[in-house]
Amino acid sequence: MRTKLFACLATESEAALFATFRRRKARQLAARISYGRIVARARDPVFYRDWGVPDTVDGRFEVLALHAFLVLNRLKRERAKSRDFAQALFDAMFADLDRGVRELGASDIGVGRKVKAMARGFYGRIAAYEKGLADGAELRAALRRNLNGTAKPTADQIELTARYLSGQAAALYPVPLDALLAGEVPFAPLETDS
Question: What is the DSSP letter of 35?
Answer without folding.
Answer: H
